[in-house]
Request: fold
Amino acid sequence: MLIRVILPSHLLTLARISGDVTLEVDGLVTQRSILDALESSYPMLRGTVRDQVTQLRRPFLRFFACEQDLSHEPPDAPLPDAVASGVEPFLIIGAIAGG
Amino acid sequence: MSRVRVLVGTRKGAFILTSDGKRDNWEISGPYFAGWEIYHLKGSAADPNRLYASQSTGWFGQLIQRSSDGGKTWEPVGNKFVYDGVPGTHQWYDGTPHPWEFKRVWHLEPSLTDPDAVYAGVEDAALFRSADGAQTWQELSGLRGHGTGPRWQPGAGGMCLHTIILDPVNSGRIFVAISAAGAFRSDDGGATWLPINRGLNSPFLPEPTAEVGHCVHRIAIHPSRPNVLFMQKHWDVMRSDDAGDLWREVSGNLPTDFGFVIDVHAHEPETIYVVPIKSDSEHFPLDGRLRVYRSRTGGNEWEELGKGLPEGDCYVNVLRDAMAVDSLDECGVYFGTTGGQVYASPDSGDTWAPIVRDLPAVLSVEVQTLP
Reply:
């Protein structure tokens, strides 16, 4: 399944990507399977979205899709069909804070 | 003619400043890693084109970048810092036990002989080493585990291992310093460690001369005499002539002995530099006059150096990793400020001029002397 992911600009720069990211995700589409595919394609992003040991989302990042905040959903919960079908993107958003 | 390359880490990216040996015309490149905090970047003595940089933000965590062409291009390398075994606890600000949690890399120290070997000093305080060009990291856990670790406590800036000195003469000897735990020495390449804080006096501690708990801000050596250590402590400038076994105060006639940086002249082992800061609650120069103080006697007798530095209305700080020297025949001295200035003196501190005035707050300054 081809999934669309939108990354914060700093991570696009780090991964040398311009625009949206399209990922091939096998099986159930979840936060974990998307992040696994993202880190597999772009190893330099390991540790930037979730902790490498605990696998927990970094505190200042949020996950959105289909106008819903999915940040506190379990990592293995299925994402909305519109994300799984590639119609809607999965957004990784940096909290607006700091100077 | 020799050249110098000044590596500057700031709150919003890295900058590389280059000049020929005259050090009067500078080329500025950067920002590299724009928008990220660059706590430190440093070049390998074994291969000056090999650079390592610590890149982090609160949003995306810690990255390590590596360059093999003197900073023209960079590649992200390993950023997995995992404490060895069960990390245990240290003391929190209120004295309660607090679990060890990795936060960031404060300092990167490349090996003196192997461009692929590099040490990282991290917060919460620990020492890591990589032998493969920073692709993978292993903790030298004998430091945290030597016994006093549960009594370490963070300073105001966090519990950071900020100073790593690799002894160029005594193989296997490493010095580190931690805020606010103190100084430590290993004589076996980092396997085992000893606190080396005897002679330090910190009145804010319940036991002012305790084995650990001192807020050491910086340590420096001259490579030809690695048993002589100079320390800028929270308050007090200190000196040891026996590799840290015993310290004595050499603050002498300094107008204030609070500060962060300390460094040693490249060719004169008894010539040292500090930047006095008013106090631990007012992190700026006395009377708004930015001054470097130099001692040519290894401490106690200090002279004020101010030619070319701000005479007033200057309320910046100079952070602990933000001073360095080059090794040209006439030693150059450099420091960066939280106001974004990087000052250089091409004549051992007699005169100063800003290389650049308006960078983001400077966190670190390192200098490479190139052929």
